[in-house]
Design goal:
The structure is a homodimer of 352-residue chains.
Chain A (H helix, E strand, L loop, with lengths): L8 H8 L3 H8 L10 H13 L6 H8 L4 E6 L5 H16 L3 E6 L4 H13 L4 E4 L7 H8 L4 E4 L10 E4 L1 H14 L5 E4 L6 H16 L9 E2 L5 H13 L6 E4 L2 H13 L9 E5 L13 E4 L2 H18 L7 E4 L2 E3 L11 H7 L1
Parallel strand pairs in A: 1-2, 1-3, 3-4, 4-5, 5-11, 6-7, 6-8, 8-9, 9-10
Antiparallel strand pairs in A: 10-12
Helix pairs in contact in A: 5-12, 8-9, 10-11
Chain B binds a DNA duplex (30 and 30 nucleotides) through helix 2 and helix 4.
DNA sequence: GCAAAAAGCGCAAACGATTGTTCTAACATA
DNA sequence: TATGTTAGAACAATCGTTTGCGCTTTTTGC
């Protein structure tokens, strides 16, 4: 059909005899403002339709310094947590006529740095970044240079960077309290990437919950170093072989919990008889697991949506003011993976 | 830090005294070709680094008619199947210096049509589309207009459009044969969106497997109309209440299988004692479900990677030749969700 | 010593859209 | 008739890169 090369203003101009200026103005709804006659406008509009004219976004972007595009930087889009967020970011952006360039950083800070640079070069109007989380300077640079940005999930509360994240402290606190209420005292954490804010906050929540229940905190019971499944598997394996096996595991991500489950099965143990488990971040299938998994549910949709709103706010205001941080509450979902246990005498003593 | 507006060729030019032309050439590695002295080149390269120069992709794209960007159109990025594919597409594209604009169509053909149009206007160099799947003309238009495109998953084998998809026929055939080998005769299908090629092919595989085993095909035992979880739930509910309840369910997607599991639980039935189940598309958590789920595994990575390769092939060749279709084999994964059952006398007779 | 070749680089147009300014009629006013 | 208005539209610059061609200067060959 349309084998001719693309219709441009020039094409229309020579076809109609009007200047590109006039045509551009009409097509941008500025006919009145520039006193272009209704008659002319009609002709132009009709013809543009007939020739299926679409303005070249590159040219327009170049001129206007507006691309109507946001960059979305994600450590692993195949992680359902990030996929959900990506979905809500995309949807919210689309509502406002914006598109999304997706960059998967494979949990690799170098790729993340390159991606951010790439997106700057591509004239993004804003960046939604779920960083790997251990370093922030490349993100601060962006913000200081005036490019709107919002950090999600692994944020940097002590840097001047806007962020949206779950209330990890509260979520962990509730989860651990729940375990304690069920009689657990030896509660292991399989953590994610260290020195990231979600990880730190969850550990704080963990510690505070222990503290408030007068349970001593044993450092060696916090293990692991990644939010991935393999880490969950490996660390659970080790934990389970210890002679004073923990009675419960708090997995810092949905993937970690999957890995832990695998290890538990391999060791011929079962949930929750032999060991209880709670995972951070709920998943649709948690209900159907061998033992339905208790979890700290994050509000994926809210996170993505609010993050995108913050970007648009920045784009509109044009002034990189003081960064605001938003904490989204979590919700503890109780399922069968937690067993109520008798406290041992040993532990009773500890309490005394 | 870098509060000055972006460094451009002009900035560099006035700073260094060389023309934009020369600088551009050096920075594009064409110094030799245009006989620019090593000395000059070094100065320019160093300075570009110091001033953190990144070429404006819009300007370059305008000039070169190249955006180094692919459009990725997906019905639902939060579906792990599509998320996995998105990941491999992004990765493969990145390898070649390309970026991805992500459009989620929410399983809605209208949004899909708009997205495709949007991406054309945005000068994408190619489109990877996982269509809703019931209509193809807007995609054909794109291909005929010379824009490289490849369809994944819900393809259109009888249209002239390149595609990559799992061998759905073979996958279904094997799954059903496996069920039959285990004594099942009354095998229900909860299908996805009708008149899409994966759905059609899976049904063909289903029917042929029955046929080759001399089992009569009952139309009323194929139900459902969407790949979503709700459909799986609803249809399973109905199936389970029938007096001649099927002995096995073949779920046409991972989400459908989740919905079906929910229904099965609600009816106080259990897998595989009361009913066997096989799902199309394996998921990492299938191993850990109440009863580990047998499934037809699709090679997500392969699909995304090969699709992207086909796009690049088209981009390079510049000639929209006859479209090629690629079928990726599936793999049947046997887990505990299928029970070996006695054939009833009734069915034995049928076989005779 | 002098034309020819090579080295080293810049000029200016082009990509397609937008916009402040300017131009040209036609019409109105005095 | 001379002057002022206004409607209607075009000019030309701009955004930042790329590239065909052309322009100097230096080097080479004999």
């Amino acid at each position: 059909m349309d084998h001719s090369s693309k219709t441009t203003l020039k094409t229309l101009s020579s076809k109609l005899g009007f200047s590109e200026t006039t045509i551009s103005r009409v097509l941008n709804g500025k006919a009145e403002k520039y006193r272009i006659s209704k008659k002319t406008a009609d002709i132009i509009i009709q013809s543009a339709k007939d020739l299926n004219f679409t303005p070249n976004i590159l040219a327009r972007g170049l001129r206007l310094k507006k691309t109507h595009t946001l960059g979305l930087v994600i450590p692993d889009i195949s992680n359902p947590f990030f996929a959900s967020i990506a979905r809500s970011v995309e949807r919210e952006a689309r509502k406002f006529g914006y598109s999304i360039i997706l960059c998967d950083t494979e949990e690799n800070t170098n790729i993340e740095i390159k991606s951010v640079q790439l997106l700057r070069g591509r004239n993004m109007e804003g960046l939604v970044v779920a960083p790997v989380g251990q370093t922030a300077s490349h993100l601060e640079d962006v913000y200081n240079a005036g490019l709107p940005i919002v950090i999600i999930d692994r944020c940097f509360p002590n840097k001047n960077l806007p962020y949206v994240t779950s209330d990890n402290y509260q979520g962990a606190y509730e989860a651990i309290s729940y375990l304690i209420d069920n009689g657990h005292r030896r509660i292991a954490c399989i953590q994610g990437l260290e020195n990231t804010s979600p990880n730190n906050d969850r550990i704080r929540g963990y510690k505070d919950a222990l503290l408030n229940n007068h349970i001593p905190y044993v450092k060696s019971i916090i293990v692991g170093d990644s939010f991935g499944e393999l880490n969950g598997y490996t660390e659970a394996k080790i934990l389970l072989k210890k002679k004073d096996r923990p009675t419960a595991i708090f997995a810092f991500s949905n993937l970690i919990s999957l890995g832990a489950l695998k290890a538990i099965e391999e060791e011929n143990l079962s949930v929750p008889e032999d060991i209880s488990i709670v995972a951070f971040d709920d998943q649709p299938y948690f209900d159907h697991l061998a033992t339905p998994m208790s979890s700290v549910a994050q509000q994926h949709n809210e996170i993505g949506q609010i993050a995108t709103k913050i970007i648009f706010k920045q784009i509109k205001s044009k002034t990189s003011s003081v960064a605001e941080g938003v904490l989204i509450p979590t919700k503890l979902i109780k399922r069968a993976s937690v067993k109520r246990i008798q406290q041992s005498i040993y532990h009773e003593k500890e309490l005394a």
